[in-house]
Amino acid sequence: MITATAEQVEVRVDSAGEVEDRLNSAVRGLQVIAARTRTHGILVTRLSPGHFRVSLSDQVPFGLTRELVH
Known about the structure:
Strand content: 35-45%
Oligomer: single chain
Radius of gyration: 11 Å
Number of strands: 5
Strand order of the largest sheet: 1-2-4-3-5
Largest sheet: 5 strands, mixed
Helix content: 25-40%
Structural class: alpha+beta
């Protein structure tokens, strides 16, 4: 399941095989938005097994994607 807002995408997966494709899709979508403003990078946060948040972040330089595990 993917839940999205303008600056954030929540991704939930049931199998490890889905993780890469779903996260890549979420990152690509936010890259389009980030390219317009050129002020935010992308932060991928693992919240729990199978649950991720992909968001625009002013803590990540434009053009970069960083990962964070909680």
